[in-house]
Fold:
Amino acid sequence: MGKAARSAHGHQEGYRAGEKEFDQAEFEGYLDPHQVLGRYGSAQVLLKPASEGTGVIAGGPVRKVMQVAGITNVLTKSLGTSNPHNVVKATFAALLSLKDVGHVAEMRSKTIERNQRQAA
Structure:
């Protein structure tokens, strides 16, 4: 989140900071295979997988974070406070708690294909 005297500069600064954060996290390979609830303060953000072609169904701050992250086909619901700062931080918490399909399969000693069949 950026801070500046003018709104446009603050948005640009926040956008650049968010891109840096997501470059480190790298969401490639994250298929959003499961429902996640992110929390920060009294803000809660629910992320649910959606079928192909649905797009991003989200409110203001959550939609912006999803666009920067490059995540499509997701349903979201913001619960609790409507404070944009806390909602963005709760969205980050939800995204960072996503688990890679390969990592989950490895932990369970199963193959990726078997996990995907069971989820369907």
Summary: Strands lie at 36-40, 43-49, 56-57, 74-80. The mean pLDDT is 78.
